[in-house]
Protein backbone atom coordinates (compact mmCIF):
# COMPACT_ATOMS: atom_id res chain seq x y z
CA UNK A 1 0.00 0.00 0.00
CA UNK A 2 2.88 2.39 0.76
CA UNK A 3 4.26 1.78 -2.74
CA UNK A 4 0.89 2.71 -4.29
CA UNK A 5 0.79 5.90 -2.19
CA UNK A 6 4.29 6.84 -3.35
CA UNK A 7 3.47 6.18 -7.02
CA UNK A 8 0.22 8.16 -6.85
CA UNK A 9 1.93 11.02 -5.03
CA UNK A 10 4.67 11.23 -7.66
CA UNK A 11 2.13 11.21 -10.48
CA UNK A 12 0.00 13.95 -8.88
CA UNK A 13 3.07 16.14 -8.34
CA UNK A 14 4.27 15.63 -11.91
CA UNK A 15 0.88 16.32 -13.50
CA UNK A 16 0.20 19.36 -11.34
CA UNK A 17 3.58 20.93 -11.99
CA UNK A 18 3.38 20.21 -15.73
CA UNK A 19 -0.01 21.92 -15.78
CA UNK A 20 1.57 24.93 -14.02
CA UNK A 21 -0.85 24.68 -11.11
CA UNK A 22 -0.28 25.34 -7.43
CA UNK A 23 -1.62 23.00 -4.77
CA UNK A 24 -4.26 25.63 -3.96
CA UNK A 25 -5.43 25.87 -7.59
CA UNK A 26 -5.78 22.10 -7.83
CA UNK A 27 -7.56 22.04 -4.47
CA UNK A 28 -10.08 24.64 -5.67
CA UNK A 29 -10.87 22.62 -8.78
CA UNK A 30 -11.36 19.47 -6.71
CA UNK A 31 -13.33 21.27 -3.98
CA UNK A 32 -10.81 20.13 -1.36
CA UNK A 33 -8.34 21.97 0.84
CA UNK A 34 -4.73 22.50 -0.20
CA UNK A 35 -3.81 20.53 2.94
CA UNK A 36 -5.42 17.47 1.36
CA UNK A 37 -3.39 17.96 -1.82
CA UNK A 38 -0.23 18.29 0.27
CA UNK A 39 -1.08 15.09 2.16
CA UNK A 40 -1.62 13.19 -1.10
CA UNK A 41 1.62 14.53 -2.57
CA UNK A 42 3.56 13.47 0.53
CA UNK A 43 2.18 9.97 0.10
CA UNK A 44 0.34 9.98 3.42
CA UNK A 45 -2.92 8.91 1.81
CA UNK A 46 -4.51 8.26 -1.58
CA UNK A 47 -7.47 10.28 -2.89
CA UNK A 48 -10.77 8.44 -3.17
CA UNK A 49 -12.07 7.13 -6.50
CA UNK A 50 -14.16 10.23 -7.27
CA UNK A 51 -11.19 12.55 -6.72
CA UNK A 52 -8.93 10.34 -8.85
CA UNK A 53 -11.51 10.41 -11.63
CA UNK A 54 -11.80 14.20 -11.39
CA UNK A 55 -7.99 14.58 -11.41
CA UNK A 56 -7.88 12.43 -14.52
CA UNK A 57 -10.37 14.77 -16.20
CA UNK A 58 -8.40 17.86 -15.18
CA UNK A 59 -5.07 16.49 -16.40
CA UNK A 60 -6.38 14.51 -19.38
CA UNK A 61 -5.25 11.09 -18.12
CA UNK A 62 -6.95 7.93 -16.90
CA UNK A 63 -7.34 6.89 -13.27
CA UNK A 64 -5.10 3.94 -14.11
CA UNK A 65 -2.37 6.36 -15.16
CA UNK A 66 -2.52 8.09 -11.78
CA UNK A 67 -2.02 4.76 -10.00
CA UNK A 68 0.67 3.28 -12.28
CA UNK A 69 4.45 3.42 -12.54
CA UNK A 70 5.68 4.94 -15.81
CA UNK A 71 8.89 4.67 -17.81
CA UNK A 72 11.67 6.72 -16.28
CA UNK A 73 9.84 7.15 -12.97
CA UNK A 74 12.20 7.17 -10.01
CA UNK A 75 11.71 7.29 -6.27
CA UNK A 76 11.58 11.08 -6.14
CA UNK A 77 9.04 12.13 -8.74
CA UNK A 78 7.23 10.73 -11.73
CA UNK A 79 7.70 12.59 -14.99
CA UNK A 80 4.05 12.10 -15.91
CA UNK A 81 2.60 12.41 -19.40
CA UNK A 82 2.98 15.50 -21.46
CA UNK A 83 -0.01 17.78 -21.20
CA UNK A 84 -1.79 17.34 -24.50
CA UNK A 85 -0.92 20.53 -26.40
CA UNK A 86 -3.21 19.61 -29.30
CA UNK A 87 -6.21 19.54 -26.97
CA UNK A 88 -5.27 22.90 -25.46
CA UNK A 89 -4.68 24.44 -28.88
CA UNK A 90 -7.97 23.03 -30.22
CA UNK A 91 -9.95 24.43 -27.29
CA UNK A 92 -8.41 27.87 -27.82
CA UNK A 93 -9.13 27.76 -31.56
CA UNK A 94 -12.75 26.72 -30.94
CA UNK A 95 -13.18 29.50 -28.38
CA UNK A 96 -11.70 32.04 -30.79
CA UNK A 97 -13.92 30.83 -33.64
CA UNK A 98 -17.02 31.12 -31.44
CA UNK A 99 -16.20 34.68 -30.36
CA UNK A 100 -15.22 35.78 -33.89
CA UNK A 101 -18.50 34.23 -35.07
CA UNK A 102 -20.46 36.34 -32.59
CA UNK A 103 -18.73 39.53 -33.77
CA UNK A 104 -19.22 38.56 -37.42
CA UNK A 105 -22.96 38.16 -36.82
CA UNK A 106 -22.99 41.53 -35.01
CA UNK A 107 -21.18 43.15 -37.95
CA UNK A 108 -23.59 41.55 -40.43
CA UNK A 109 -26.59 42.82 -38.43
CA UNK A 110 -25.01 46.30 -38.29
CA UNK A 111 -24.43 46.35 -42.06
CA UNK A 112 -27.99 45.16 -42.80
CA UNK A 113 -29.42 47.86 -40.52
CA UNK A 114 -27.10 50.44 -42.11
CA UNK A 115 -28.24 49.47 -45.62
CA UNK A 116 -31.83 49.93 -44.44
CA UNK A 117 -30.99 53.46 -43.32
CA UNK A 118 -30.47 52.88 -39.58
CA UNK A 119 -27.12 53.12 -37.75
CA UNK A 120 -27.61 50.75 -34.84
CA UNK A 121 -24.21 50.85 -33.16
CA UNK A 122 -25.68 49.25 -30.02
CA UNK A 123 -25.42 45.90 -31.80
CA UNK A 124 -21.70 45.91 -30.97
CA UNK A 125 -22.44 46.77 -27.35
CA UNK A 126 -24.76 43.77 -27.11
CA UNK A 127 -22.07 41.54 -28.63
CA UNK A 128 -19.78 42.15 -25.61
CA UNK A 129 -21.86 40.28 -22.97
CA UNK A 130 -22.77 37.58 -25.48
CA UNK A 131 -19.05 37.06 -26.14
CA UNK A 132 -18.30 36.99 -22.41
CA UNK A 133 -21.05 34.45 -21.73
CA UNK A 134 -19.69 32.25 -24.53
CA UNK A 135 -16.17 32.61 -23.16
CA UNK A 136 -17.38 31.77 -19.65
CA UNK A 137 -19.12 28.59 -20.81
CA UNK A 138 -16.23 27.36 -22.95
CA UNK A 139 -13.65 28.33 -20.33
CA UNK A 140 -15.63 26.39 -17.71
CA UNK A 141 -15.66 23.31 -19.95
CA UNK A 142 -12.00 23.30 -21.04
CA UNK A 143 -10.20 25.09 -18.24
CA UNK A 144 -12.33 23.66 -15.41
CA UNK A 145 -13.39 27.15 -14.40
CA UNK A 146 -9.95 28.51 -13.54
CA UNK A 147 -10.06 32.29 -13.21
CA UNK A 148 -13.74 32.47 -14.19
CA UNK A 149 -14.16 35.26 -11.64
CA UNK A 150 -12.39 37.68 -14.00
CA UNK A 151 -14.79 36.79 -16.81
CA UNK A 152 -17.79 37.13 -14.47
CA UNK A 153 -16.55 40.54 -13.26
CA UNK A 154 -16.26 41.76 -16.87
CA UNK A 155 -19.70 40.30 -17.67
CA UNK A 156 -21.33 42.17 -14.77
CA UNK A 157 -19.81 45.47 -15.94
CA UNK A 158 -20.78 44.84 -19.54
CA UNK A 159 -24.41 44.10 -18.59
CA UNK A 160 -24.62 47.33 -16.60
CA UNK A 161 -23.08 49.20 -19.56
CA UNK A 162 -25.58 47.60 -21.96
CA UNK A 163 -28.53 48.74 -19.85
CA UNK A 164 -27.08 52.24 -19.48
CA UNK A 165 -26.30 52.66 -23.18
CA UNK A 166 -29.70 51.26 -24.18
CA UNK A 167 -31.36 53.87 -21.95
CA UNK A 168 -28.84 56.61 -22.78
CA UNK A 169 -31.56 59.17 -23.51
CA UNK A 170 -32.58 59.01 -19.87
CA UNK A 171 -28.98 59.47 -18.66
CA UNK A 172 -29.31 57.01 -15.78
CA UNK A 173 -25.63 57.11 -14.87
CA UNK A 174 -26.60 55.97 -11.39
CA UNK A 175 -26.85 52.44 -12.79
CA UNK A 176 -23.07 52.27 -12.57
CA UNK A 177 -23.39 52.47 -8.78
CA UNK A 178 -24.67 48.88 -9.01
CA UNK A 179 -21.20 47.88 -10.19
CA UNK A 180 -19.74 48.50 -6.73
CA UNK A 181 -21.76 45.90 -4.79
CA UNK A 182 -21.90 43.55 -7.79
CA UNK A 183 -18.12 43.52 -8.23
CA UNK A 184 -17.70 43.20 -4.47
CA UNK A 185 -19.88 40.08 -4.50
CA UNK A 186 -17.81 38.61 -7.35
CA UNK A 187 -14.56 39.43 -5.52
CA UNK A 188 -15.75 37.96 -2.23
CA UNK A 189 -17.01 34.85 -4.02
CA UNK A 190 -13.54 34.32 -5.44
CA UNK A 191 -12.13 34.35 -1.90
CA UNK A 192 -14.39 31.55 -0.62
CA UNK A 193 -12.30 28.54 0.32
CA UNK A 194 -13.81 25.31 -0.89
CA UNK A 195 -12.11 23.24 1.74
CA UNK A 196 -13.23 19.74 2.45
CA UNK A 197 -10.67 17.75 4.36
CA UNK A 198 -10.09 14.18 3.35
Descriptive overview:
- By secondary structure, this protein is mainly α.
- 67% of the residues lie in helices and 0% in strands.
- The protein contains nine helices and no strands.
- The relative contact order is 0.11.
- Mean pLDDT is 83; it is low at 74-83.
Helix percentage range: 55-70%
What do the pLDDT scores average to? 83
Largest sheet: none
DSSP, total strands: 0
Q: In percent, how much strand structure appears in the residues? A: under 5%
Oligomer: single chain
Key terms:
198 residues, 9 helices, mainly alpha, elongated
Describe the secondary-structure layout:
Elements: H1 2-18, H2 23-30, H3 34-41, H4 49-59, H5 63-67, H6 85-115, H7 122-142, H8 148-166, H9 179-190
Concise overview:
The protein has 198 residues and is mostly helical.
Amino acid sequence: MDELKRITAANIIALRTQAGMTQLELAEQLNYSDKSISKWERGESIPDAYVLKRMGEIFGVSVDYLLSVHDGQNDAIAPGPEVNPARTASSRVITTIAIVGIWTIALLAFIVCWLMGHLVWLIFVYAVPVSLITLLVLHSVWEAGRYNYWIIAALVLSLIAVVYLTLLRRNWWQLFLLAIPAELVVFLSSRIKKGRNN
